[in-house]
Write a structure and sequence with these properties.
The protein is mainly beta. The protein is built from two helices and 18 strands. Helix content is 4%, strand content 48%. The longest helix is centred in the first third of the chain and has 12 residues.
Length: 405
């Protein structure tokens, strides 16, 4: 169980040294090459009660698809020159299923859609190049430069039980991975171009801070200054405490004759208290202008064209609570969690409150050292404060396999 968890963390945040790779080749020049990864597949029955949000007509849909954790093929090369540790990392994330034509999220890309939208035949590359980075390190710490998972909120997703399962599906269209608790308890950290410093490992407290490729936050579209993200994690045995923060500044298009600034920011944190037999986890986040599903997606209103400045940024907050139990000498872990994400209107627009809630329960059986068998049941609700608008409810039982190597 522990090896699988470490490999999962390695695949998600790029700590490949934590993974016990199946293939390691030692070169004559002192460099080593490793290959590791995972493949997972889940049979999911997705039943959404509203035809208005379901591209499959409001009917239940069966699918065989990738879970929240992508399938990964990870290649690492590491070496030491003098007192400097060097490395390069490539992480390919192929998907196993074809999507339907309708995108799972408003404003999201339609990549992965099948021929004619029939959900069966899709041709061409279906590989998400999530990780491409180099590392330079030593006793002073490490610098990572390239494309990797962001810092803000990454501990929230890494400690989520649905990382080994499905969680919220994101809709029956079935493109890419499922959502897990993305938008249902935390904002997705996303794999982003960055230059990040991390303190040297092997200590109870570790700290990371980085400059990130800035994102547009319409109507604030300029990207003159990199975004800052930071994370601090204290670990003691099976317990840990973490905090994180992010800040980004954008301006409106100056060609309009008016230049307003939107300063988006967010804070997050969590606690996990654990023993070898059980753990209790609680997380939370709060921010302004950062969105509530994907970072900066819908983080501001365009109704005023940005003339409201900071008043055009929407507030968002959320979190989740989780309990896991692994009986002594057992290969079975039982987990349950509940949480949600809420986004409120900006000061310059009419009042609203969008709410996403997810209750998830799962049984995770470590069949072998590398093979995990998963059964999961998920119940998600998307709602607002408009009485005339019915809640969208989703039931998604799932069963699948995860093989780490």
């Amino acid at each position: 169980m522990r090896r699988v968890a470490l490999l999962c963390l390695g695949l998600v945040v790029g700590a490949a040294s934590a993974a016990e790779a199946q293939l390691t080749m030692q070169m004559g020049n002192g460099w080593s090459f490793t290959f590791a990864g995972n493949v997972n597949a889940f049979l999911v029955y997705d039943d959404i009660n509203s035809a208005g949000v379901d591209p499959l007509g409001g009917k239940g849909a069966a699918g065989i698809r990738t879970g929240l954790l992508p399938a990964f093929a990870v290649f690492d090369a590491k070496g030491k020159e003098g007192s400097t540790d060097l490395g390069v990392h490539f992480g390919f994330a192929p998907q196993i299923q074809c999507g339907y034509n309708a995108p799972p999220l408003a404003g999201a890309a339609t990549s992965g859609a099948s021929v004619g939208g029939q959900g069966h035949d899709c041709f061409g590359a279906q590989i998400d190049m999530r990780q491409v980075y180099l590392t330079v390190g030593g006793s002073w710490g490490q610098i990572l430069a390239g494309r990797e998972l962001g810092l803000f909120g990454r501990q929230n997703i890494l400690n989520d039980q649905t990382l080994f399962g499905v969680g919220a599906t994101g809709g029956a269209a079935g493109q890419g991975t499922t959502l897990g608790r993305i938008g249902f308890g935390y904002i997705y950290p996303q794999f982003k171009a960055q230059m990040t410093y991390s303190s040297a490992p092997g200590r109870p407290f570790n700290f990371s801070i980085g400059l990130f490729q800035p994102a547009q936050n319409p109507p604030f579209v300029t990207v003159q200054v990199p975004r800052v993200e930071a994370e601090g994690v204290w670990t003691g045995g099976n317990s840990k405490v973490w905090v994180g923060a992010t800040a980004q500044t954008n301006k409106t298009d100056e060609t309009t004759g008016v230049s307003e600034t939107g300063f988006a920011w967010g804070g997050t944190g969590g606690v996990r208290f654990g023993t070898p037999m059980f753990s209790v986890t609680g997380t939370a986040y709060y921010g302004k202008g950062i969105g509530n599903i994907l970072m900066f997606l819908g983080g501001a209103t365009s109704a005023t064209g940005g003339s409201g400045g900071a008043d055009d940024l929407r507030k968002s907050f959320g979190g989740y609570g989780q309990i896991t139990v692994t009986p002594a000498s057992s290969k079975v872990t039982v987990a349950g969690s509940f949480g949600g994400s809420i986004q409120k209107n900006a000061a310059s627009e009419a009042a609203f409150k969008n709410k996403n809630w997810l209750a998830s329960g799962g049984i995770y059986y470590q069949a072998t050292k590398s093979l995990k068998v998963v059964g999961e049941f998920n119940y998600a609700i998307t709602a607002d404060d408009v009485p005339a608008t019915p809640d969208v409810k989703e039931i998604a039982p799932a069963f699948g396999f995860m093989l780490f190597f």
